[in-house]
Amino acid sequence: MNYSNLNKTELRKELKKLDINYTENQNKEELIRLLTLAKSSVKKVKKPTKIKNTKKYTIIFFALVLVVLMFFDYSVKKNREMMESQKQADNAPVIFEKNNQTHVVYNHPLVKLKVLTDKNCKRIECDVDSQLTKIKNSITPLFKSEVIDYNSGEGKALAQDNNINLLPAFVFDQNVTMLYDFEDKKDYFIKTNDNFLVYLTPFKSLKSPDLSNAQIISENKNLDAPLRITVFFSPSSPQSKDAFELIEDLREKYKNSANISLKHFKTHNSDFLASIALECYAKEGKFLEGLNKIFDRQEVLMIDRDVNAKNLVNSISSSLRIKGSDFRKCFDDETVKETVMASYKEAELLGVFGVPTFFVNNNLILGSYTFEEFADIISQIIEDEKIELTE
Predict the structure, then answer these.
(1) Is the bond into 235 cis (omega within 30 degrees of 0)?
(2) Residue 44: its pLDDT value, please?
(3) Are 112 and 178 in contact (CB under 8 A)?
(4) CB of 227 within 8 A of CB of 389?
C-alpha cells in the first residue's frame, strides 16, 4: 500500500490502529517507514473452518463403536467356546491302540454321593447296593458314597435342605457336572441348591397319602389306622383292573384291621371324566359297583374321546339307577373335579409314575404280585414298623 499520499495525522491514526508507538517529533518519512514495517510484520490469522456434516460424523463414530463392541462380544464368545471345548477335551475319553487291542480310558472325576435311606427297612427293594450298581453302570463308576439313615438328625436335615420326598434319594455334589457326558445325563438329575438329586426305584414316601379325599372300601374308615393300604388306580388301565382281585383279597384278609382306600391316577385323558363319574357314583353308595362296570368296558376310555367317555358314564349311571338330574348336577360340580385333580397332583408328589401303585402306610409297592407275595411284603412292613393291628 502507498502511504505517501497520507499526511502525518493520518499516518499516526494507522499506527495507532496497529498499537504501534510513535513520537510527535517524527517526520513523515519516519512514520511511513514505521507503518510499512508494522504492516509487514502483522500476520493474518484465519478463522477456523466450521465443521460441516456433523450428523454424518456422529453416525460414523457410533458405527465404529458398534463394530468394536461386536468384535469384543465375538471374542468373549469364542474364548468361552474354546474354554468349554478344552474342558470337554480334558474330560473326553482317550482312545489308543496297544497289543492289537483298542483301549478306552475315561477321565472320571471323583463324585461325592450321599444316599438317604431308611435303614429299618428289610425289604429287598430297600437294598441300596443294587441301586449303587445301577449308578455305577449308568452315571459314573467313580464315586465315594455315604449311606445316611433318614431317621437320624443328619438324615432329616439332608432331606429338608434338598427337598427330598422319596427314599432312597441319591444326592450328588457339584463334581458330577464335570463328567464328560454330563449334558447327555443331566435329565436324570433334579437340581437342589448346590447338589444334584436322583431317584431310581423309590420304596418309601416321606409323606403319607391323604385319605380325606380317598374312596375307602374297607370296613375300617379310620384315617389314622395303624395299617393303611392305599391304591392309586386308573379306570382305563388293564393293570388296575387285574389288580382288583388282589385288592378284594386284601379286604378279606385284613377286614376291620386295615384302612383300604382307592385314589385316582390318569393314564388316558378320558380317565378324568371317568373318575368324576366314580366320585358321583360314590355319593350314591355305588362306587365299587360303578367301577366294575367301567372296568368291563374300559376299552371305550382308551379311545380317548370325551364324547365316548360321557356316553359310557351316563349309561352306567342309568344302569345303577341313579337319577339323571342328580348325576348331571354332580358331574358338573367343580368341587368334585377339584377332588380328582388333587389326587392327580398328590400322585406326582408321592412318586407315582404308573398304576397300580400300592402304599402300605408310607411304603411304595410296585409291580405285579400274587396275593401270597403281597401278604408277605405287608408282614415285613408290619414287623419293620412294629405295627400292632386291631381286630
Answers:
(1) no
(2) 47
(3) no
(4) yes
Given the candidates 3.40.30, 2.60.40, 3.90.25, 1.10.287, the CATH classification of the domain at 111-205 is 3.40.30
Query: What's the CA gap between 143 and 102, in Å, rounded?
Result: 26
Instruction: Provide the residue ranges of all domains of the chain, joining segments of one domain with +.
Output: 111-205, 211-384
The span from the CA of 350 to the CA of 380, in Å, is: 21
Cell of 161: 435342605
Number of neighbours of residue 206 by Cβ within 10 angstroms: 18
Cell output for 120: 429299618
Tens of pLDDT, residues 363-391: 999 888 999 999 999 999 999 999 998 76
List the one residue out of 143, 152, 81 whose CA is nearest residue 116: 152
- Position of cell 368296558? 297
Give the pairing type, strands 259-264 and 228-233.
parallel
Would you state the cell numbers that stand for residue 171, as one nine-digit string?
A: 444326592
Could you tell me if 287 and 278 are in contact, meaning their C-beta atoms sit under 8 angstroms apart? yes
**Residue with C-alpha cell 408310607?**
362
**Taking Cα atoms as reference points, which of 111, 135, 229, 120 lies closest to residue 167?**
120
Q: What is the pTM of this model?
A: 0.71
CA 335, 338, 343 angle in degrees (round to 5)? 135
Q: What is the 3-state secondary structure (H, E, C) of 218-275?
A: CCCCCCCCCCEEEEEECCCCHHHHHHHHHHHHHHHHHCCCCEEEEEECCCCCHHHHHH
Are the folds of 111-205 and 211-384 the same?
A: yes
Q: What CATH class is the domain 211-384? A: alpha beta
CA 369 to chain CA mean position, Å: 34
Coil, helix or strand for 364? strand
Average pLDDT over residues 329-335: 97
Which residue has 464368545 as its cell numbers?
77
Residue 209, helix vs strand vs coil? coil
Gap between the Cα atoms of 242 and 369, Å rounded: 11
DSSP 8-state code for residue 124 = G
Cα–Cα dist 206/209, whole Å: 10
